[in-house]
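User: Teach me something about this protein's shape.
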Amino acid sequence: MRIKKISTGIIISILMVLLVCNVVLAQGVLNLWCQDRNLDRSQHRGFNWVYREFEKATGIKIKVAHAPIEDLLKKTLAAFAAGTGPDIMDIDRAWLGAYLKNDLLAPFPPDLQEKWESMAVPAFKKFEVKGKVYELPIWVDVYALNWNKDMFKEAGLDPNSPPQTWEEFRAYAKKLTKYDENGKIVRVGYAIRYMGNPTGVVQKHLWALWSAKASIITPYDTLTGGRTNFNNKGGYAAIDLIKKMLYEDKSTAFGFGDPRDAFVEKKAAMQISECAAIPSRAFKEAPDLNYGMALPPHPKWGIRVTNINGCPSIVVVDGPKKDIAFKFIRYLMRPEIQMFIPLTWDVDQLGFGIVPFARFLYKHPWFQNMYYDAVLKMAEYGRPQPVEINYTEASDIFGKYMVQAWFNKISVKEALAKAEKEINALLAEE
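Assistant: First, the predicted structure itself:
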């Protein structure tokens, strides 16, 4: 009987030890979900070196799961609801409000926030939310106008003077558009994005909305209590600008695909998107592409502005592993890692031109050139996307009706009224 009691005691002790070990092992694994392929270990990207060095230094394993950008937001929200969400994520800033709405993210601890602020390019400090930092940008989007200088010369335009006002923008686009013998457009003066996720479409058109003193939700840095600000002169003008270019000027058109592709393929004379979009591709896909980069145009009665966005940004889930997750954030902020990232991103394309988060990099000779000088100057006019907890849904609604207006399915006035009604109903639920 005594032997049985001792055996039972030993077995229980062993089970307890195994249970504790399993808990420790689980605590030593970080589950990172990402939408950017460069962060996906299975695709053997350059970032694997970062993971390996962190694991060697800390003993904490990084387990990475990749999902396409159009799937990740829904996938993570469903996983959190089921209690199976990740510990750390790579997200687009446009999603930040959706996660904060559900109290899913942990703000940086005070010492780490202080370090973040000391490192950041001053313009990028606008990413703070109510004085708190939630994200570490791997790199930063600064949206810019690209124009083909050779096409400008061909059209009799100054290749070094891009359009600054909407009036110039429309006039230049008309001169730059080319047609075949049947009157079909074969090269647009300006390529628009009109396909895909509505929020993605809106991102490529925020420059027009904001420069016309309108916005989907204002103020941009509020989590709750925001209001719509687009069913007005500015909102009407921003959507109508593209309609006029489509139907009056005939300087843009549907059917040219992604505007970045159209520009690199020389099917478009101008396009507006992330400033890194063209330099990271042109040297390989179009090495003879002679182009420039500047702030998007604005109406004469408007303001000079562009959108800046952390993409991808690393955020920490407010869960049991947030302390070890912040160890990974600290590791990513080390100078050698901050240098490594822009030099190896999209390494399979040998691209270069992404915008670093850390200001000390811009003092390095590799980042002292006309491209990065222009980026920093444009960033001063930058505004982040709103972080209102319902912004993603509101942006989808706005984008849906904006595109319908462009296709002449509804009027601009009707598009604004319908979007305002639906978004106001959304905000009223807060």
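Now, about its shape. The first helix runs from residue 2 to 27. The CA atoms of residues 88 and 183 lie 53 Å apart. If you'd like, I can walk through any region in more detail.
User: That's plenty for now, thanks!
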